[in-house]
Amino acid sequence: MTVMDDDRPILAGGPALAQERRLLTSLPGPRSREVLERKAAAVAAGVGHAVPIAAVAAGGGVVVDADGNSLIDLGSGIAVTTAGNANPRVVAAVTEQLTRFTHTCFMVSPYESYVVVAEALNRLTPGDHAKRSVLFNSGAEAVENAVKIARKHTGRQAVIAFEHAYHGRTNLTMALTAKNMPYKHGFGPFAGEVYRAPVSYPFRDHLTGPDAAALAIAQIDKQVGADNIAAVVIEPIQGEGGFIVPAEGFLPQLAAWCRDNGIVFIADEVQTGFARTGRWFASEHFGVVPDLVVTAKGIADGLPLAAVTGRADIMDSPHVGGLGGTYGGNPLACAAALATIDAYEHDGLLARADEISTRLLDRLRRVQASDPRLGDVRGRGAMVAAEFVDPATNAPDAALTARVAAACIAQGVIVLTCGTYGNVIRFLPPLTIPDHLLEEGLDVLEAALAQA
Ligand SMILES: *Cc1c(COP(=O)(O)O)cnc(C)c1O
């Protein structure tokens, strides 16, 4: 496929793709516009899109569209292509698997790669206790299964989720998710026995971690009762809710209370997992060892895969046949996961997340020093956010956020917004992005903010 304006061919992603921001048209260009018009006619209206392009290639730190525009990727397809889009290791492994078999269903005829993925997850997730894993297709499906497992293990039903939480779009995970628009509006009734507790949000609650935990625990205890609770489900750093980093001490105190009360502590590491935050899992930043860890997004470079990993006695409580699914742990996704894990382990990507962190945080804090509309800059590793406010009141400024994000995208920089109040821009670059593109992306952002 040749969509470039110069001599360089587009190879299958990876470093061969020219690492530059290049706008040949305004967005969308004519070829992309045609695809988007057909999208409007053929695809359900409920499926929105953040960037008005039709992608044809991606790799390193860019996404290329059908008109030959090359956009700087600060989103990684929502924290998925952390190891770089079409990572060459993944391309080779999946291509090889494709020639052998595409599917047998692991519940019919098991195969080794699923087992190797489980072994890797058991090895890499926090804690040195005996573990088991089970594979699924999506983050939401894995969260649902983590709750099923916790309920079977405890014989209890109640589940605690938090303010600003995001856990997916299926019925149970909509109930766990905090934000109405766009995730829940009109889609009820929602699953029962889900209760919401306050979370630590230092920029807004001004509480220490232990104080925020005490508040949450008191509320849970009074309103639900520890003896009724199967599981507490929490993102160690909240994703869609605004990249909210809890104050030091919040998670350990919550985890200790769960342990004391026989409650399964489930870390939803779907967005934070797999090198994204500069550690394998964000729980490590806070010194917590979850009973169950849910993973997806960064696990397989975009092939659909998700997992629940945790304490062997909890994981083994469902009866034989109680867990599974037709496609869960598909052999192509497993091949991709093993190659992606190889990339994290052998290509220096965890250290790269820390380098990216320093660049993002330093730059954004410099901007913040002269622009009080940038109320908070926070994050870990290559998971960094800027929260925009009205400087007079600290009130969320969603309109400013939307204008800045739209201006960045129009200039060929893919940024995503998030936050309960829609006033956060999140930075999730692939760890393969070259420094010059990261800096150029931030130049564009700074100029967009100055003009907004
Ligand atoms: C994206 C996300 C999910 C849902 O994952 P899907 O693969 O979209 O179902 C669940 N939890 C968190 C924290 C996420 O970021």
Would you kindly provide a written description of the structure presented here, covering whatever features stand out?
With 452 residues, this protein is an alpha/beta fold. The chain folds into 2 domains: 30-74 and 348-451, Aspartate Aminotransferase, domain 1 (Alpha-Beta Complex); 91-346, Aspartate Aminotransferase, domain 2. Helix content is 37%, strand content 16%. The protein is built from 14 helices and 15 strands. It has helices spanning 30-42, 76-79, 88-98, 112-124, 139-154, 171-176, 202-205, 209-223, 250-260, 312-315, 331-346, 349-370, 398-410, 435-451; strands at 55-59, 62-65, 70-73, 131-136, 158-162, 194-197, 229-234, 264-268, 292-295, 306-311, 374-380, 383-388, 413-414, 416-418, 424-427. The strands form 3 sheets. A 7-stranded mixed β-sheet has the order 4-10-9-8-7-5-6, sandwiched between helices. It has a 4-stranded mixed β-sheet with strand order 1-2-3-13. The protein has a 4-stranded antiparallel β-sheet with strand order 11-12-15-14, with helices on one face. Strand 2 and strand 3 (70-73) form a beta hairpin. The longest helix is centred in the C-terminal third of the chain and has 22 residues, at 349-370. The model is unreliable at 1-14 (pLDDT under 50). The structure holds pyridoxal-5'-phosphate (PLP). Pyridoxal-5'-phosphate binds at residues 138-140, 143, 166-168, 235, 239-240, 268, 270-271, 296-297.
Considering the chains and any ligands shown, give keywords for the structure.
452 residues, alpha/beta, Aspartate Aminotransferase, domain 1, Aspartate Aminotransferase, domain 2, 2 domains, four-stranded mixed β-sheet, 14 helices, 15 strands, 37% helix, globular, disordered N terminus, binds pyridoxal-5'-phosphate
